[in-house]
Amino acid sequence: MCILKYGSILNIPRNFICSLHPKIKELFNCSLCLGFWVGVFIGLCDYYIFMTDVNYYLPLISAGVCWFGDSLLMMIQTIEVYLDKKLEDME
What is the average pLDDT score of the chain? Predict the structure, then answer.
């Protein structure tokens, strides 16, 4: 999910895909939604390629983990920006 959403190597294809429809752009802006669909894709690959049992909870687990990880990274970046600004003001 992070590679699809933030990966600089995917900027050109992501911008093209997002320009096709506003809902697709909305999907790429939401880590919960994108995490869900990544989980669906991984679950389908797991079932059809590796012939494992269907895991119906995988998309939901993937969505939750992706949302939590993205929120945690955003919080850390916000704290980093705040501390950098505080250090600049002290100098």
Answer: 93
- The beta strand positions in the chain, using DSSP E, are none
Neighbours of 72 (CB within 10 A): 10
Please, how many CA atoms are within 13 Å of residue 78, restricted to the half-sphere of its CB? 6
* CA–CA separation, 52 and 48 (whole Å): 8
Contact 41, 35 (CB under 8 A): no
pTM: 0.82
Tens of pLDDT, residue by residue over 48-78, are 998 888 888 999 999 999 999 999 999 999 9
In order of 38, 49, 58, 71, 83, the CA distances from 66 in angstroms are 10, 23, 12, 8, 26
Contacts of residue 40, defined as CB under 8 A and 6 or more positions apart, other chains included, come to 58, 59
